[in-house]
């Protein structure tokens, strides 16, 4: 039984075979210039695009479970937020957990009664993150989760993410922010034209 | 109270066709650029009708299951092709045609046989009944399938972000695609529901008008028209349901991914 995340020879068009091992409670910064394969990699891990390779999380193989089961464990946050109900609150299955998170992110509780068209870009981003974090998935695949946030709210989000890491979750976070990488990550996975290199920070 | 059928002469038709000439002149005056298309569409229609007239006469004189079946097959394939021909985003490869033809077959064959069981012609495959019925059902189902599929594929492309966000949260492809499937089904069924609601008040359907003009007792014409409307509604529902659910399957895969790569890019791009 292997604890943590084991990725072996993950490939897809635009991505060279990638193999990494990440222990429980670690945060990996996925970095590199735009178009270098960061999102392709995160989407392949979440199985959102056709890909090859073996992945296991805490001893459980991705291939042995259905895709929805896997994505409940390996939760991917898209770089852009999307809404499909009129009311904000309707998007949340675990509303109580989401409200706690929203409060930690500096959002008022009544925001859940709003219509989605009222939300600002920053509010959208924090709410989307709350949607993903509410079920406490053991693996978080975050694609630029703080790109639209000011320093204060970025800090609030990072604090919450750190809490999840301390609780044993693994985070792969794609970001352009050098300072954020140094604040959060212990390992950096750097992409350049679909090839990646890994280094301890 | 059955009146004699008044036979039309070709001069009568030529006078009626002059109405289109007025349209062509208008198009020329206002520079709409429609005259060429109008001319070719009219010429194509005349040729197709003349040809089908000859084919029907021949079929009626040679009543056989084989020939009726062959004619039906050609109609189904053509309807299948037409139903996916003018889509904004077509499925790549043979999938588009496959969906079109199979939904047309389902709607056409099932409903025509059902209709023939009510009318009970002798023999049951007599082309006088089977071919026009099949044509009516295919024509309407074709519209439904075409509108529905177009709506589905455009919806998938438009809602990519929302669909993939839902998939990322661990929802199944059925759940994630439900809103666009529902919208596509509504779009497919709306024209037929509209025409059922307005039939008899706003307009008399073409077939009923034709029967009455041809001297059939209006009461009989109404009964036939009701039968046809039920068949057409049923055919459109079957065909669209099959095409849209099939399309939704094709737009996703067994690992619950959204597969927009199975669609061609927008034609205007």
Describe the structure.
The complex is a heterodimer of chains A (201) and B (269). Chain A contains six helices and ten strands. Chain A has 201 residues and is an alpha/beta fold. In chain A, the strands form two sheets. A six-stranded mixed beta sheet of chain A has the order 6-7-8-3-9-10, with helices on both faces. A four-stranded antiparallel beta sheet of chain A has the order 2-1-4-5, with helices on one face. In chain A, helix 3 (95-104) packs across helix 4. Chain A is globular. The model of chain A has no long low-confidence stretch (mean pLDDT 95). By secondary structure, chain B is mainly α. Chain B is built from nine helices and no strands. The radius of gyration of chain B is 22 Å and the shape is globular.
Helix content of chain B: over 70%
SS elements, strand count of chain B: 0
Strand-residue fraction of chain A?
25-35%
Number of helices of chain B: 9
Alpha-beta classification of chain B: mainly alpha
Strand percentage of chain B lies at under 5%
Largest interface: A-B, 24 and 18 residues
For this structure, the quaternary state is heterodimer
* Biggest sheet: strand arrangement of chain A: 6-7-8-3-9-10
Largest sheet of chain A: 6 strands, mixed
Mean pLDDT over all positions of chain B: 90
Radius of gyration of chain B: 22 Å
Overall average pLDDT of chain A: 95
Secondary-structure element sequence of chain A? EEEHEEHEHHEHEHEE
> Percent range for helical residues of chain A?
25-40%
Low-confidence segments of chain B, ≥5 residues, pLDDT <50? none
Shape descriptor of chain A reads globular
Shape of chain B: globular
